[in-house]
Every structure is written in structure tokens, then in C-alpha cells.
Amino acid sequence: xxxxxxxxxxxxxxxxxxxxxxxxxxxxxxxxxxxxxxxxxxxxxxxxxxxxxxxxxxxxxxxxxxxxxxxxxxxxxxxxxxxxxxxxxxxxxxxxxxxxxxxxxxxxxxxxxxxxxxxxxxxxxxxxxxxxx
Length: 133
Description:
Elements: H1 3-9, H2 13-18, E1 20-27, E2 35-36, H3 38-51, E3 53-62, E4 68-77, E5 80-90, E6 96-104, H4 106-132
Parallel strand pairs: 1-6
Antiparallel strand pairs: 1-2, 3-4, 4-5, 5-6
Helix pairs in contact: 3-4
């Protein structure tokens, strides 16, 4: 089992954060622009853990060189079943430097956008506090 998968399944926020590179770029399935930086990415992932219900990784796909990894997941958001994939790229130190999420179907993506929108003030505050601290 990949360490990131284990951290997420254990809901270990610190382990998740520790696996992120300082220069990580997070590309959301529901936002137009990517989010650069460890603080905002960690805050977004905590927000996702708050809105996803019944989250489960169902498959791992790995690059033989170990720098790219895909984790396929299922979850529920606001009563909608969602399927998705976390695409992870690892830097030379083994930290995630690129994190892209894709989800389907559209109705679930819309529910995710709404749920994450409701979290955004908290996410922004957490990211600012982490950067300042």
C-alpha cells in the first residue's frame, strides 16, 4: 500500500502534510486555477476529508519508476456517489510535487464544488495560519 493511501485511509492529517513538497501544485476537479504550495494543498485535503463520506481507495496504478501514481477512489458527497482519481507525481525526494484530482459524474462534481465552496473560508484561514506559523 502506498504511504499516501495509508495516510488518507488512516485520516492522518500530519502524515498527509508530511508527504507534500513545499512547491506542490494542487489541481482541483472543480476550480479553474491550480493552487500552488504545501499550506493551501494540505488545507484543501483536510477540507475534502470533511466533505467526503464513505471514502475508499479501490485501486492503485503505479509507474514502474515510482515517480507517478494514480489512486482510484469512491465516496459520497451530499448524497451523491462520486468516483475519482488522485494523480500524484513525486519529486526526487519522494514528496508529492504535483497533485491532480479528476471526478465523475457531473452531478457529483457539482455537489463537491458546492461542499468545498462552503469550506473555502476555513481552508483559506488554515492555509494562512500554516504559512504564518
